[in-house]
């Protein structure tokens, strides 16, 4: 294996690390909230705190990229997230989860921006799809490990196990340092473009709006699908946790397929096709009293449908905007998307808590239709431009 391929493998492994913690709390929440004496909606407070920190590190990311190498940012971020998860396994009060959501969010945002920028500017569309497929590997493996932990031990074991895996991945990143090409901070194409100026670039505002809704819909499914399976469909704790794994397994498969067909179909075509699958899955969720295997299949279909949007939009950034704009635009897309999600998740969690988990497919359908409408509008109206 050449050094270049080995480096790509390390980058993909790091995106597994990014995905591992993302659905962990959602899949553990049915037991963890009882252990900590919390209602369903409290998970929204933890995720809100995490996303505020993710927003902060994502917004500062372009400045970090001018001062530190991608490998250094990545290593520190994975160490931060792994340590936070291990400490989360020891908390005895809800405030402990809230406090540890801070380093968890900071680490996730820094990994996300730095590696998306690296792959978008140095590799191709297929690599971007595969990168996010490996995120799917991580985010589906996390709930699977939690499901095993819930069946054999407790939710705390799941956090401890995943945290330990992240520290092992951090060691792999450190060992890989000689493989990374030298990055001179002052030569990176990350100029100090003001937010106001970047927002004037044609298509940026609409792309940000798409990200806001796409991140929200995908994260909404990942966080609440286990609770919907448990409280809405009446499945047991372990099976409900595996529902999250099925969703993210579908997402992973969808991104692998996107990578395989990257040369045959455009990002536009794959994004619209995926969003159509999400709408179909949301409609089928309204069918009452279906077998468990059918519900699990729908969860997988939901994941497959959401798969192409995020990496597809990242790849489209390199076509639609100047190279010197990309890190700032990616940063704004993530930041504003996370802000929208951070506010909407506690609100939707409260709605599900106060009314019924039967609202889950309604929210999913409405959100999917909005993403589909915004994306088709972007594809129809936006043309690549060369200046801000």
Blueprint of the fold:
Layout: H1 3-19, H2 24-35, H3 42-65, H4 70-88, H5 94-122, H6 125-152, H7 155-175, H8 195-199, H9 204-232, H10 237-260, H11 267-284, H12 292-306, H13 309-320, H14 326-354, H15 359-381
Can you put this structure into words, describing what you see?
It is a single chain. With 388 residues, the protein is mainly alpha-helical. The protein has a single domain, classed as Growth Hormone, Chain: A, CATH 1.20.1250. The chain has helices spanning 3-19, 24-35, 42-65, 70-88, 94-122, 125-152, 155-175, 195-199, 204-232, 237-260, 267-284, 292-306, 309-320, 326-354, 359-381. The protein is globular and about 50 Å long. The model is unreliable at 185-192 and 384-388 (pLDDT under 50).
Mean pLDDT across the residues is 79
Overall shape: it is globular
Q: Characterize the biggest β-sheet.
A: none
**Gyration radius, in Å:** 20 Å
Q: Which sequence of SSEs, written as H and E, runs from N to C? A: HHHHHHHHHHHHHHH
Helix/strand-derived class? mainly alpha
Counted up, domains total 1
Distance between the termini: 41 Å
CATH topology: Growth Hormone, Chain: A
Tell me the number of strands.
0
The appropriate CATH architecture is Up-down Bundle
CATH superfamily: MFS general substrate transporter like domains
Q: What is the CATH class?
A: Mainly Alpha
Helix content: over 70%
Strand content: under 5%
- Count of helical stretches: 15
Which regions are unreliable across 5 or more consecutive residues at pLDDT < 50? 185-192, 384-388
């Amino acid at each position: 294996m050449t050094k270049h391929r080995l480096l790509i493998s390390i980058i993909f492994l790091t995106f597994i690390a990014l995905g591992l913690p993302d659905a962990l709390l959602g899949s553990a929440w049915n037991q963890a909230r009882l252990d900590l004496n919390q209602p369903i909606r409290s998970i929204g407070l933890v995720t809100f705190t995490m996303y505020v920190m993710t927003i902060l590190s994502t917004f500062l990311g372009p400045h970090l990229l001018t001062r530190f190498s991608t490998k250094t940012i990545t290593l520190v971020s994975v160490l931060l997230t792994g340590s936070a998860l291990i400490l989360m396994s020891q908390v005895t009060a809800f405030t402990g989860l809230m406090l540890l959501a801070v380093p968890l969010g900071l680490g996730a945002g820094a990994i996300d921006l730095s590696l998306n920028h690296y792959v978008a500017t140095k590799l191709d569309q297929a690599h971007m799809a595969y990168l996010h497929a490996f995120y799917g590997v991580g985010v589906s493996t996390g709930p699977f490990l939690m499901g095993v932990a819930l069946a054999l031990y407790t939710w705390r074991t799941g956090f401890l196990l995943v945290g330990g895996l992240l520290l092992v991945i951090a060691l792999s990143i450190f060992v890989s340092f000689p493989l990374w090409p030298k990055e001179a901070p002052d030569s990176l194409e990350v100029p100090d473009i003001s937010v106001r100026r970047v927002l004037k670039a044609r298509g940026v505002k609409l792309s940000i709006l798409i990200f806001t809704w796409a991140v929200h819909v995908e994260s909404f499914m990942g966080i609440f699908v286990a609770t919907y399976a448990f409280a809405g469909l009446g499945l047991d704790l372990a099976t409900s946790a595996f529902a999250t794994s099925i969703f993210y397994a579908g997402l992973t498969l969808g991104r692998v397929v996107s990578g395989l067909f990257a040369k045959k179909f455009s990002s536009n075509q794959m994004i619209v096709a995926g969003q159509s699958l999400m709408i179909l899955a949301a409609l089928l969720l309204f069918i009452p009293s279906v077998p468990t295997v059918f519900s699990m299949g729908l969860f997988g279909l939901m994941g497959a449908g959401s798969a192409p949007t995020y990496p597809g939009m990242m790849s489209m950034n390199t076509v639609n905007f100047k190279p010197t704009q990309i890190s700032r635009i990616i940063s704004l897309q993530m930041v504003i998307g996370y802000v929208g999600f951070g506010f909407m998740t506690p609100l939707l969690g409260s709605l599900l808590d106060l009314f019924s988990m039967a609202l889950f497919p309604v929210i999913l359908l409405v959100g999917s239709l909005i993403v589909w409408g915004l994306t088709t509008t972007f594809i129809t109206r936006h043309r690549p431009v060369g200046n801000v």
